[in-house]
Write a structure and sequence with these properties.
By secondary structure, this protein is mostly helical. Mean pLDDT is 74; it is low at 1-57 and 74-86. The radius of gyration is 22 Å and the shape is elongated. The termini are far apart. The protein has a domain at 1-27 and 44-82. Helix 3 (87-104) crosses helix 5, helix 4 packs across helix 5 and helix 7 (160-174) runs parallel beside helix 9 (199-209). The chain has helices spanning 2-26, 46-72, 87-104, 111-125, 127-140, 147-157, 160-174, 182-195, 199-209, 215-219, 228-241, 252-276.
Length: 279
């Protein structure tokens, strides 16, 4: 509720700025007769002001969100305040922008991907808020996204367990249409590196979705040549790192998703133990 109030106040402020800008630019009501609405001195500047203030208040991530919101409403915009204030809000806004980056990676946005995102946000925030977020996502999809700047910014402010959960979600988008596209996986890999996620941790999450003969070992971040003791140590280390309680602050659905990831870790460990006859 606090964030909604902040957005509304910012919207009124931006609306006043735009109206003053339009009035000063035209010197009053000097628009030539017959001028189409939205052209000349009556042009809407919401998305540009939104993007500018978004950048000022929230860096490259805020600029993207601000431009998108400004495109949706004349004079209503958003700044970094939309996604700052709570860990859950930070995570949600980061998901929006990075979701768009992954969805655009292969040059097309398919319905299954959009529905995956909608389902996630509905479970997190309810239908009404989910619809607003999807509308914002659709505007973000129209923009060019500087993956490097955005990923670095997110990496600076997000805790490590949340970064891992974010990657898990992005792989979910990539698999929503039942297949993986190399370009989508490459973008997720790029995002992971720029956020500061270790190569081993990325390979572990990747192996939870993209299966091959070594997937169980990849999930545990070891090779098939590892000793039984090394297998046990790797499992214990990752069991602590991937424990669902690490991301409990992000909301119930995130916690549920983390639990599923934790179960995949356990399944990989059990598979290796079965193969080796380990106790």
């Amino acid at each position: 509720m606090t964030k909604i109030i902040v957005i509304a106040l910012i919207g009124f402020f931006i609306y006043a700025l735009i109206k003053a800008f339009q009035k000063n630019s035209s010197g009053g009501n000097t628009t030539p007769p017959g001028t189409p609405p939205g052209t000349g001195s009556g042009k809407k500047y919401g998305k540009w002001i939104g993007g500018g203030l978004g950048w000022a208040f929230g860096g490259p991530l805020g600029a993207i969100l601000g431009f998108a919101m400004g495109s949706m409403f004349d004079g209503t915009t958003v700044s970094g305040n939309l996604y700052r204030g709570t860990a859950r809000g930070d995570f949600a806004m980061s998901l929006l922008v990075l979701s768009a980056a992954v969805m655009k990676a292969d040059g097309k946005v398919v319905k299954a991907e959009l529905e995956y995102v909608r389902s996630f946000f509905t479970s997190q925030f309810g239908i009404e808020e989910s619809n607003r977020l999807i509308s914002l996502l659709e505007e973000i999809l129209k923009q060019e996204i500087n993956i490097q700047d955005v990923s670095i910014q997110i990496g600076q402010f997000m805790d490590y367990p949340s970064k891992l959960q974010l990657l898990h979600y992005l792989f979910g988008i990539a698999s929503a249409d039942g297949q993986y596209h190399d370009k989508e996986v490459d973008v997720i890999s790029q995002i992971a590196g720029l956020m500061g996620v270790g190569a081993g941790d990325f390979a572990s999450i990747r192996a939870m979705f993209i299966k091959d003969l070594n997937s169980a070992y990849d999930i545990l971040e070891i090779t098939s040549s590892a000793s039984d003791d090394e297998v046990k140590k790797a499992y214990r280390r990752l069991a602590v790192q991937y424990h669902p309680d690490k991301v409990a602050h992000l909301g119930e659905d995130i916690h549920k998703s983390a639990t599923e990831k934790f179960q995949k870790l356990n399944a990989a460990y059990e598979e290796i133990k079965k193969q080796r006859g380990m106790k």
